[in-house]
Amino acid sequence: MLTFFKFLLVFMNGLLLQTVFAQGEEAFIRKTLKERMPHIHPIDEIKRTPMPGLFELRVDGSEIYYTDASANFLIQGHLIDTKNQRDLTEERLQKIMAVDFKSLPFKDAIVIVRGKGERKMAIFEDPNCGYCKRFERELQNIDNVTVYLFLYPILGKDSVDKSKAIWCSKDQSKAWQDLMLRDQAPNPTGCDTAALKRNVDFGQKQRINGTPTTIFADGSRISGAVEMAQIEKLLSPAKP
What we know:
- The protein contains seven helices and eleven strands.
- A hairpin with a 5-residue loop joins strand 3 and strand 4.
- The protein has helices at 2-36, 88-96, 130-139, 157-167, 172-182, 194-205, 228-234, and strands at residues 43-48, 54-59, 63-68, 74-75, 80-81, 86-87, 110-114, 119-125, 145-151, 213-216, 221-223.
- The relative contact order is 0.11.
- It has two domains: 2-96, Roll (Nuclear Transport Factor 2, Chain: A), CATH 3.10.450.70; 101-234, 3-Layer(aba) Sandwich (Glutaredoxin), CATH 3.40.30.10.
- The strands form three sheets. Strands 7-9-8-10-11 form a five-stranded mixed sheet. It has a four-stranded antiparallel sheet with strand order 1-2-3-4, covered by helices on one side.
- It is elongated and about 60 Å long.
- By secondary structure, it is α+β, with helices and mostly antiparallel strands.
C-alpha cells in the first residue's frame, strides 16, 4: 500500500511539473510573439500538436497558426497527419467554427420541407450568389429534409432589395425557388423586414463570411456549393 501511495505521489508531482512547464512555454510564446509581431491579434489559445515541438496558436477566434517552442517561426497552413490521412487543421477549424444548431434564430428563416423533413439543415444564402444558385439545384435532389433558409444579403443593395421582396412574398419558399432556379424575380411588396438585418448580424457574429454557408444538425458547417453526395454524407441520419 505504501508503495502505491509513493507511486501516486510521484505521478501527481510529475503532472504538476508538466503543467507548470506547459504554462511557462505558453507564457514565453505569448510574450515573444507580442514583442516580435505586435500587429497580430491577441492569441486566444496555445496548445501542443501531435507533431513534437510544434504548437498551435488560435488567434482572433478562428484563425490557426503554428510555431515552435522558441517562437522563432510562424507557420500558416494545414497540418496533415500522413499516417492516418487526416487534415488536423481542418478538423480543428470544424470544431472551433461549430454552431449550436438549436441556437439558430429559426423565426427569421424560410422553412422548406421535402418529404418527411426528418433531417435538418440550415443555409445562409444571398439571392445574387451564383454558387447559391448552383447549390439550390443540387438541393432539389435531397429528400426527407427540412431546410431552414436564412436570407443573407451581403453582396450589395440589389441583394437586399431581392431579399426583402422574397421575405414579403405570400409564398416565401416559392418566391425563393422561382428566383434561384428559374430566374423569376418576385414582385416587391412591403412588410417588416427586420429579420434580414438580424440574419446578417447573427451571421457576422458567427463569422459567416460567404454564401452559401450550410450548418448541419451536429453543428458542423461547410462553405460553398457542394455535391449532393457530400450533403447526404453530412446530413444527420433520419430517425427510424
